[in-house]
Amino acid sequence: KNRNSLLIIEDAEGSLSRLRTSNQSVANLLNLSDGLLSDGIQVQILATFNSPLISLDAALLRPGRLVAQYCFPSTLNIEN
């Protein structure tokens, strides 16, 4: 039913920061992305962050975890 779906976690730094006292959120996300979601029902996970990558748990940044990164400049030039 949910094959080829996209799970969006917006402003994920709150739950996936390495500064948190508990890494349960990170462990849960990694377990889901490594096993059940990716293989079983083929769900892709898109997470957005409003913080530098250095603040994320290192487990999320290992090879094979993040397929792509898109960094936007801190100031965008918007033309009227």
Sum this structure up briefly.
InterPro entries: P-loop_NTPase. This protein is 26% helix and 10% strand.
Key attributes of the depicted protein:
P-loop_NTPase, 2 strands, 80 residues, alpha+beta
Folded structure, characterized:
The chain has a two-stranded parallel sheet. By secondary structure, it is α+β, with helices and mostly antiparallel strands. It has one domain. The chain contains two helices and two strands, in the order E-H-H-E. InterPro entries: P-loop_NTPase.
Strand content: 5-15%
Give the oligomer, counting copies of the same chain as homo and different chains as hetero: single chain
How many strand units?
Answer: 2
Structural class: alpha+beta
Mean pLDDT over the residues: 71
Biggest β-sheet: strands ordered side by side in the sheet: 1-2
The tally of domains stands at 1
Rg, Cα atoms, Å: 14 Å
* Largest sheet entry: 2 strands, parallel
